[in-house]
Design brief:
The chain is of the alpha/beta class. Helix content is about 50%, strand content about 10%.
Length: about 240
């Protein structure tokens, strides 16, 4: 009977994976009375599987869901209690807005949720402050050696602390000393338009994706081009590749 119940629950929750309960550690019982519930969202299954393996043997952390798309993530969060969300910054080709727009939405709809942002971008100094300003608790590059410390980071943000991997912190410090990068002068919306253009989206697609007018997005694109000194879309794409890799 228990097995049938689990199968039924898994069938209903197709957007994410439900894991069986595990014994709580003393620290989880002492502080929260239950394990820390975690959801992982990334558009690459190999990333999800890698993070699952890191968390697998942590008795005070319970992976309650995974999502490959933003719509699946929202469905998961609405139907499952989650303390900490580990979420990718970019969901390429997703129909829903990602990046800064996503994290603002998450904090608006799930204000008590502690979010750790993952990114594969290398030039993080240009946008990490914008990300942290949305109210997320953690920022971690996928290439960072500190990714293996994810369980400790989850416990830290669950307790209300902020976290940023050491390489990102150093990049911000260096950027703050120089303060010469053009990307840092972009507004939040100009940065998002620049990123989406670099990913191959058209102005019309960005307008639909962000619920803005084509005229507004075109203006933000032109402002970004002027700041970069770009004279064509090809110039802008080259700068995107040099910036974000």
């Amino acid at each position: 009977m228990l097995e049938k119940t689990r199968q039924s629950a898994a069938h209903r929750c197709t957007a994410f994976e439900v894991r069986p309960e595990r014994a709580m550690s003393y620290s989880a019982t002492h502080r929260y009375g239950r394990p820390i519930s975690v959801v992982i969202a990334d558009d690459h299954m190999i990333v999800i599987e890698g993070l699952k393996s890191i968390l697998r043997n942590e008795p005070d952390i319970e992976l309650v869901g995974t999502a490959l798309t933003i719509s699946a993530l929202i469905t998961c969060l609405k139907s499952t209690h989650c303390d900490v969300l580990v979420c990718d910054y970019s969901f390429e080709s997703d129909a829903e807005p990602d990046g800064l727009n996503l994290f603002k939405r998450l904090k608006r709809e799930f204000p008590d949720l502690a979010i750790i942002v993952l990114t594969s971008h290398q030039a993080v100094a240009s946008f990490v402050c914008h990300v942290m300003d949305t109210g997320v608790f953690g920022f971690l590059r996928k290439s960072s050696e500190e990714i293996v410390r994810l369980p400790r980071i989850i416990r830290s943000v669950r307790a209300g602390d902020k976290f940023m991997d050491s390489d990102s912190s150093a990049a911000i410090l260096q950027n703050g000393i120089r303060n010469t990068t053009v990307v840092a002068t972009l507004s939040e919306r100009e940065l998002e338009v620049f990123r989406m253009l670099g990913q191959g989206m058209t102005v019309t697609e960005i307008a639909a994706h962000t619920n803005r007018s084509v005229k507004t997005v075109s203006t933000q694109k032109l402002k970004a081009m002027r700041k970069f000194g770009a004279t064509s879309d090809a110039d802008l794409y080259r700068i995107y590749v040099e910036t974000f890799g």
